[in-house]
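Possible race condition, two jobs.
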Amino acid sequence: MTRQLLGAHMSIAGGLDKAVERGVRAGCTALQIFTKNASQWRAKPLGDEAVRLFRKAFDESDLGAVAAHDSYLINLASPDEGLWRKSIEAFGEEMRRCALLQVPLLVMHPGCPRDGGAEEDGLRRVIGAFLEILETAPEGVKILVENTAGQGSCLGHRFEHLRAILASLPAERFGVCFDTCHAFAAGYDLSTFAGYEQVMAEFDRVVGIERIELFHLNDCKKGCGSRVDRHEHIGAGAIGRQGFQALMGDERFRDIPKVLETPKGDSDEMDEINLALLRNLTGEN
C-alpha cells in the first residue's frame, strides 16, 4: 500500500527550491508553500531561473503533491473598496505565480467583513471578487476555500459559509481546504471517533466531502468553540490523538494531501516528529 500524501508548510527562505529541500529532509510526501512573502503586498516577479530551480527540485523529489497559500493581507470580504480592489489584484497575482510554478492548488481564507459588517454582505463580496478574478485567471490553478476558527468577524467558521461561496462559483475551479484546528475552535468537536464521524457527516450534508482537496493537520491550543486560532503539535492540544487517528484512518480521504501547519521551533525537527506520529497512527512507520 502506498504511503499517504503527508507533509508540512515549508519556508521559502533562500529560494522556492529550498522549500522542496526542507520538505524532503523532513520526510514529506506533500508540501505547502507561500510563493512570496505572505506579510507583504508586493513581491519581485518570478524569474525564469527561480521557476526552473523549483520545478527541477520538485520533479526530482519524491513529493507527490504541492499547494500554495495566499498572502495573509488579502481580504476579499472587505467592505473597504480600496482594500477590496487591492485584494482582488493581489489574489490574481497569486494565481499567476502558481501557474508559472505549476502549483495546482491555492489555499485562501474567505476574509473578514470588518467594522461589524453583515456576514451575508461579506459573502457576496467574496463571490463577486472571485467572479471578477476568474475573468483573467490562468487555467490549471484550483482555489481552495479554507474553513476558519471564526476569530473576530472572519468568515468561514460555519460550513454554511463555505457552501454559500462554492454554490455560486464553477465547481471545477473551487474546492475546500479543511483545517482541523480551525474546525475544532469553531465548535466542531473532532476529538473523539464519534465526534469526528459526526463532524464529517455534517460537512458532507452541508458542503459535500467530495469538495475537500487538502487538509491542514493542526491540533488546537484552545477548547472546542473557543474561536481562537492557535495551532498546536499533533496530540499535544485539545483535539488529541484520537481525532487525528480517526482522520488518518478514514479511507475516503486516503488520497487527499494532508499538510502540517504546526509550530516550527528552531528547526524542522518538529515536523519530522509530527509526521512520524501521524504515520504511526495508521501503522505506516
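Job #2 (started ~2 s after job #1):
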Amino acid sequence: MIMKLNEEREEEEEEGEKHQPLSARVIKILVFYLAIGFLGWNFFNFIFSSNFCNIEEVIIQGNDCLSEDEIFFNSGIKFGENIFKLNLKKSINSLKKEPRIKEIEIKRVIPNKIVISLTEREAAAIIHIEEEYFFSTKEGMVLSKIDRPEEGFALPLISGLEINEIKIGEIIDKPEFRTALESINSAEVILPKKFCRVEILSPDDFMICNKDDTLKVRVNRPEVIINKENLLREALEKIEREKLLVEYIDIRFKDSLVIKLKK
C-alpha cells in the first residue's frame, strides 16, 4: 500500500513538472547554466591569477652541445609566469631559430613545470673558409662558428670551398662539399683514423690528407676509394717497406693507381 502511494506521488510530481509554464522551465535552465558559468569563471580566474600555477621549474631534455642556460634564455620562458599564459608556439618558434635545434617540443606539466624536449643536429665536419672555421652538418647546414680546431679533433676538416660569404643557419649547396665529406668518410671506413682533412682542388678533384700531410690520396669520387681498397693497401705497404718519399697517391685513373714520388 505504501509503495503504491509513493508511486502515485512520483507520478503526480512528474505530471506537475510537465504542466509547469514554459517560462518557469526556461528560468530553471538559465539558473542552472548561470551557476555552471559562475563556477567555471571562478575556477579559471583562480588558475590564471593564482600563484599556484606559476612556473617554478623548467626541465630541459636532449641537449648535448647547447647549454641549458642558452636554451632557457632563447625560449623566452620566465620563472613566476603563469603556466597557462605561456605562449608555447612563440617559445618553440624562438628556439627553432637556433640552427643546432632540429626538433623541439614544449609541454606544460600542471601545476608549475615546463618540459622542453629537443633533438640537436649533429656536426659532421669543420669547414675552413679563409681564416674562419665553422661546424657543419652532413647536409651542409652551417651550425656555428668556432675557434681554430685543436689537433686530434674528431671531425674531418674541409677546405678549398669557393664561397664568398658563409652565414650561420644557411646550407652550403655546392655538390663538391658533399663529395669531399663522403670521400674522407669512405677513406675512414677502410683506413680508420688515418685521415683528418680533405682539400677541394676542383669540383671533381680532392686531396685527402693525414694530420702531418705525410700521407695524401688524390681522388675524384668517393666510391673509387672503396673500389680500390686493395690497391690502396698494397701501395701503402710498398711505401712503408721501401721507405719511399711520396707526394701523394693518385687513384683517379680507371683500374690503376699511381704513386707520385717527391722530387
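Residues 22-49 form the longest helix (28 residues).
Logs attached separately.
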